[in-house]
Amino acid sequence: MCGIVGYLGKRAAYPVLVKGLKRLEYRGYDSAGVALLTESGDLKVYKTKGKVADLENYVSDKDVSGCVGIAHTRWATHGEPNSTNAHPHISYSGNLAIIHNGIIENYAVLKKQLQEKGIEFKSNTDTEVIVHLIEYIRTKKNLDLLSSVQLALRTVIGAYAIAILDKNDPDQIIAARKSSPLVVGIGEDEFFLGSDASPIIEYTDKMVYLDDKDIAVIRRNEELEVVDFKNTKIDHDVQKVDLNLAQIEKGGFPHFMLKEIFEQPDCLLDCMRGRINVEGNNITLSAIIDNRKHLINPRRIIIVACGTSWHAGLIGKQLIEDFCQIPVEVEYASEFRYSNPVINNQDVIIAISQSGETADTLAAIELAKKKGAFIYGICNAIGSSIPRATHTGSYIHVGPEIGVASTKAFTGQVTVLTMLALALGKERGTISNDRYTKIISELSLIPEKMKELLKQGEEIKDISRIFTYAHNFLYLGRGYNYPVALEGALKLKEISYIHAEGYPAAEMKHGPIALIDEEMPVVVVATKNVLYEKVISNIQEIKARQARVIAIVSEGDDTVRKLADSVIELPQTEECLEPLLASIPLQMLAYYIAVAKGKDVDQPRNLAKSVTVE
User: Fold this and answer.
1) In the annotation, is 461 catalytic?
2) For 139, what's the count of Cα atoms within 13 Å in the CB-facing half-sphere?
3) Beta strands in 253-373 (DSSP E)
4) Comparing C-alpha atoms, which of 498, 539, 504 is closest to residue 522?
5) What does DSSP assign to residue 238?
6) Across residues 421-444, what is the average pLDDT?
7) Could you tell me where the DSSP H helices lie in 24-171?
8) Is there a contact between 590 and 405 (Cβ–Cβ < 8 Å)?
9) Residue 610's pLDDT band (boundaries 50, 70, 90)?
10) Which of the listed ranges 401-415, 502-516, 538-552 does the model predict with the highest average pLDDT?
11) CA torsion 457→459→464→465, rounded to 10°?
12) Over the stretch 554-574, which tens digit does the pLDDT of each residue have?
């Protein structure tokens, strides 16, 4: 959520900041702003409700000179989205400007204390409390800015990534983080700040990922310094980030979401590269090799995740229990962290997050670590918080996902979970060699089968136009395809704003069937597997109530075709791998319905790509 960009160097700051904000638009936001230390020595703050383009229009006739600045896109938490609550915020003296991601939990107490000292507030945000507190401490105790920030943050409870400018010190930016991502880019005689690498990569591939309670002191013509609250210097690794501009641009597609749907065949090849051998009959995961004693015989595995990652976890549960014969539970991270779970050092926690910054998942990891569990992370964003907080894990390597509605990250997560379950089953001796090699061989063919499936894009587009009238959708699946139904429903509701629910097909009779009529389209994943005949019975029950059925079927299926109103065929594969294929047409269906309805596909309302607050 929200986006931070900062610059200190020799080039004009404003173009860098605005371009950076545009790179971060995928995170979701409702207002934008910049603070600049201009050539005349003034601290100028410009902010407005709306998009970055609205900010550009607002400042078109204003002074945007200077080589130092910070910028922000805000997703409203405290206070409605408007220009007053937008960031940056200014201290009561007018000397300091701050931008902030996260939530300050004790802001009300701090605000009351500051108001009692005569300090007036202009916004309804928790962020304004921080900048006034820093200014008050600095003035009262006659301290420098760094010391004031350190003292202030000791009293702050909550999550934050902040960057601060001082009108009287144009050669410095102070930045700090706790439970919210922040990256420092190091160039030639210049520094950059970002919520992630995307606004920085155009200028440098050298990054420092700040850890919790790190404070970065960025000064012109000096080396980056990282300290803690007590001013102890902290060693920091400069990482070279493998990311290019083409990965974060649309490449001729009308939306990032469509680009990322079509990238999936190549992304899964990248995900499997170096893990499946060239003969296609063995999987090697270094995490299992290096941590065999923790992973080979756990009492149980608990998967914690949110949203799309939780759906991937449901598929992972079936894969692990099938191949490894280990009991698996799947928990929403947000519920897990508050449920006082019974965990011990014989448990393995698998934490799944595309961004690696999901606040609830991070909190679940910390809770499980305190109880002695071994933590395995599955993430996409290299250098993010979750990989650093876990004992081991696997990156999905699908490249940056910009569209808010996850597509390639979902199939990447399922692919990693499949490889993990196969490799662990082989180590445990709970999967036969014939089945092991057969599934690996089929997994290797999935990218090519995806390419064939994507050729049905125009057909799916035509189907989608029929259903823009709908106010409700029902998605049904069984076995491995039940989580696919959940994920398909989530995609539709996220970007088209049509209410949609996913159900196990057999549960339809236990309530949802009451909703089914000619106005309720039903999507059914009805591939030829062990539950095929039972799903056909469900389709007949739906048609008896005059609902329109969109069926996802196995290639060559004529039985369901005679029953359904629309049919999308999947190439044949192993039942356990069907989710990798079945999810593609559901992603495309959601995309084309949303486009036909004129919705903002890449930045749906009220949603953020990286949910870094509770």
Assistant:
1) no
2) 14
3) 300-305, 328-332, 347-353
4) 539
5) P
6) 96
7) 52-58, 107-116, 127-141, 145-155
8) yes
9) low
10) 401-415
11) 120
12) 999 989 889 999 999 999 999
Confidence of residue 244 (pLDDT cuts 50, 70, 90): low
Torsions phi, psi for 99 (to 5 deg) = -125, 150
Q: At what angle do helices 578-596 and 433-454 cross, to 10 degrees?
A: 20
Q: Has residue 395 got a pLDDT over 90?
A: yes
Q: Residues of the chain with pLDDT > 90: what percent?
A: 74
- Beta-ladder partners of 340: none
Q: How sure is the predictor about 248, in pLDDT bands with cuts at 50, 70 and 90?
A: low
Would you say 165 and 99 are in contact if contact means Cβ atoms under 8 Å apart?
Answer: no
506 burial (CB, 10 Å; 0-12 / 13-18 / 19+) is middle
Q: Who contacts 138 (Cβ-Cβ below 8 Å, separation ≥6)?
A: 144, 145, 147, 148
Model pTM score: 0.79
- Give the DSSP letter string of 351-410: EEESSS--HHHHHHHHHHHHTT-EEEEEESSTT-HHHHHSSEEEE-------SSS-SHHH
Please list the residues that pair with 43 across neighbouring strands: 37
Q: Which residue has the tokens 């029902």?
A: 474
Bridge partners (DSSP) of residue 192 are 7, 185
Residues forming beta bridges with residue 301, ordered by sequence position: 328, 348
Q: What is the mean pLDDT of residues 521-543?
A: 88
Active site annotation includes 576: no
End-to-end CA distance of the chain: 11
Q: How far apart are CA 551 and CA 572, in angstroms?
A: 15
What is the sign, positive or negative, of the torsion defined by CA atoms of 581, 361, 401, 599? positive
Do the Cβ atoms of 547 and 512 come closer than 8 Å? Answer: no
Task: Give the list of residues 6+ apart from residue 397 with CB closer than 8 angstroms, or none.
Answer: 267, 270, 271, 273, 380, 412
Q: Which residue in 2, 267, 324, 576 is the catalytic one?
A: 2
Say if residues 473 and 494 touch (Cβ distance below 8 Å): no
Choice between 267 and 402, residue whose per-residue pLDDT is larger: 267
Nearest-5° angle of CA 115, CA 121, CA 126? 95
Q: Around Cβ 157, how many Cβ atoms within 10 Å? A: 12
> Which is the catalytic residue, given 22, 317, 449, 609?
609
Give the pLDDT confidence score for residue 243 in this predicted structure: 66
Please give the structure tokens belonging to residue 78.
Answer: 């405290």
- The per-residue pLDDT for range 471-516, each reduced to its tens digit, is 999 999 999 999 999 999 999 999 999 999 999 988 888 888 888 8
